[in-house]
Design a protein that fits this description.
Layout (H helix, E strand, L loop, with lengths): L15 H18 L7 H8 L3 H7 L3 H20 L8 H18 L1 H9 L7 H22 L6 H23 L6 H20 L3 H13 L5 H17 L3
Helix pairs in contact: 1-2, 1-4, 1-6, 2-3, 4-7, 5-9, 7-8, 8-9, 9-10
Length: 242
């Protein structure tokens, strides 16, 4: 008795866009967890289940073109996480943005480190521009939630300083094995922003007005109230000798 022929797996040829998307997804996964210099086209081909020449067909510029395209895709994803409806207390909105940001950092740990630390052999003026665009997009969203449409130099500098601090804290968080917990880090970053606003408000009227507007939208049990409550005794102790 003749054994039945084994069933053949149905095969569907991918369109150009589908294949490109598949290769990019494979590359993004690799770049998310390994520095770009440690990822080869052979790695991408293997992850996608295709041949190396096929990767070259879609990305004739080789790994550099693939990396820059993947970086642009990741940057677009990250910028999308900054978007938050202007409803509710500003610190609650910013907390949700930070939650999504830290989730992105967690998902793209090694790649995120390589991206922000710089010095990668894959780093170019193009990749630097992409990263700077993300930073500027983040700053613009923070200013939206602070409630300032056209900030002066002091307030804009303060916000961009905080963005740099968030990046540095994220890198240290990865180095420290993602400790403390993401929620604790988020709360500390919100306190950090409030402290920067308060310090800048002491010598900049625009920042003072922005801070007053922010506080007016906050609840009596929100981050602003909690920070003031915790700082009260500390500031009192510092002020007494003065």
């Amino acid at each position: 008795m003749t054994s039945p022929a084994p069933a053949t797996r149905a095969y569907r040829r991918l369109s150009v866009e589908e294949r490109r998307t598949q290769l990019l997804a494979a590359a993004l996964t690799l770049f998310a967890h390994r520095p770009p210099e440690e990822v080869s086209l052979d790695d991408v081909a293997e992850a996608a289940g295709v041949s190396r020449p096929l990767v070259y067909r879609y990305f004739p510029g080789g790994k550099q073109q693939l990396y820059e395209t993947a970086l642009r895709s990741a940057a677009d994803q990250l910028e999308g996480r900054f978007s938050e409806p202007p409803d509710g207390p500003p610190t609650e909105r910013l907390s949700r943005v930070l939650d999504r940001y830290l989730e992105f950092v967690d998902e793209h740990d090694a790649g995120f480190s390589a991206l922000l630390r710089g010095g990668s052999v894959a780093e170019t003026s193009c990749t630097s521009t992409i990263v700077d665009e993300v930073r500027r997009a983040a700053a613009e969203q923070i200013l939206v939630h602070i409630g300032v449409a056209d900030p002066g130099p002091r307030l804009r500098m303060m916000v961009r300083t905080w963005i740099a601090a968030v990046e540095a804290a994220s890198l240290i968080w990865l180095d420290e094995g993602k400790q403390p917990a993401a929620g604790e880090l988020r709360d500390w970053l919100i306190d950090h922003l409030l402290a920067l606003l308060a310090a800048s408000a002491a010598t900049d009227e625009e920042t003072a007005g922005a801070l007053r507007g922010l506080i007016a939208q906050e609840s009596g049990t929100g981050p602003v109230a909690l920070l003031v409550h915790r700082l009260g005794p500390v500031l009192s102790d510092v002020a007494d000798p003065l």
